[in-house]
Each structure stands twice: as structure tokens, then as C-alpha cells.
Amino acid sequence: MEAVKMSNLHLGYDKKIVIRNFTTDIKEGEIVSIIGPNGSGKSTVLKALVKLLKLQDGMIHIGKNSITNMSNKEVSQNLSILLQHNTSPSDISVRDLIYYGRLPHKKWYQSKDAEDKKIIDWAIENANLEKLQYKKLNCLSGGERQRVWLAVALAQEPKVLLLDEPTTYLDISYQLELLELVRKLNKKLKLTVIMVLHDLNQAAKYSHRIIVLKEGQIFANGSPSKVLTKELLREVYNVEAKIYYDDLDDYPIIVPKKVI
Questions:
Q1: Span 211-222, pLDDT tens digits
Q2: What angle do CA 8, 10, 14 make, to 5 degrees?
Q3: Which end of the chain is more exposed for a tag (fewer CB within 10 A), N or C?
């Protein structure tokens, strides 16, 4: 069953069209990565999914519901997004920040209750934050902060988790930690995940399917092994590369050789 269906999307800013004829279905429990050169429109797709950007044409359905007929609050009850840059008061505690993920499920006059506490505890456990939950955000490393923001997204109880370049600016150990956590959540919770990634090897390892954008249009769409070929890397990225395959899981490993 489709968690998200996007049909003939045209997206842009003012009169400039960035995405053209974008059509794809995202199945429940699938991890899909969107890749492509800078300026190809990857993050623009995610913004449209959470109604941060108005559709110029086309349709988005979350389950059976058209996003056009859903309020921002209803969208936030179904989709949550982890951005590259997130802002909050620096002296807020981890637990207090995670509570903000509950707001889409609250009416304006409702305060924190036992159900919220239960879900905050659940988000903390699933983001591996038990030892950090009472610390202030400004005392945490960049990787720890990303896990906190992931917990905020989980506290929304989303059906679909969106990640916009979640590993940017993180050390390699934190990058792997975060992506391993996302894969664990996908398996454990059957959580549908749509990621925008720059690192092709991370996309290959952690995705069921990859969508490649070039100049605002879908250039390729399929499994990592089918999509990430030498020919595609030449045509989309202007790079000559060697491709090897992991001995255990058989995903492609890309070794760039030179710019064409």
C-alpha cells in the first residue's frame, strides 16, 4: 500500500520552476533516498510534502487523503521532517524539546498529560537518548543534537519520516550512527522514510530505492544496484567511477576516479 503518492508535481519559487513532472509512489515501510547534483530540486520535494511549499501543479496523497484538503496540523500528524538546520532555545532540556513533537496532536488549551509523557519516553528510548534526556541542548555534540531532533520527529508519531540531508556537518561516526538508527526504526516500527542525501554510498547502503534527479526531473528510479551505474554517474554527475559490490548485502560501493 502506498504511504505517499506524488503525481505530476511541478514545484518552484515565484515564477521559477524547479521540479517538473515528478511522479512516484512511496510504499509503506520503504526507505527511499532522493539524490542528485546541487540545485536539482531534492529538498524542494520534501518541502512540498509538508506544505512548506505550495504546489504549482500536480497532486500529493498521504494514504488516501489529498494534501490539498488537509490542514497543516493534519499533515504534521502523518509526516514529520528532520531538517539540516534546526533552531530552539539553547538552554532548553532534551525532554522539554521533544515535547514540541506532541503539539500537532494537542489542542491549544491542552497541557502535557500522561499520554504525552509515555510517547516522549518512547521517543527517547528509540533515539537512544536515555542518558541525555535531562541535559540542556547546548551541552550536546552535533550528532547528539541530531538524535534529539529525530526524537522530536518521532514524538509526532508520524507514518512517514522525512530527512533532509540529515548527516550534513556530522563526523563520519555520527553519520553512521544516525543512519543505522534510521534503519533500525524502519525495521522496528515499519516506518516509511524519505531521505535527501548527498553521499551516494550512504544512499546505496541504507535505501530500498533511489530516485535520481537531474535538472528538476526524475532521471532514474529503482534499486541501488540498478540505478547507481557508471553510465549514470557520468551523465548526472560528470564523474568517472569504479563500482564494487558489498560481499554480504550486495549494494554498490562507488569509488570516484576523476571529473570528466
A1: 999 999 999 999
A2: 165
A3: N
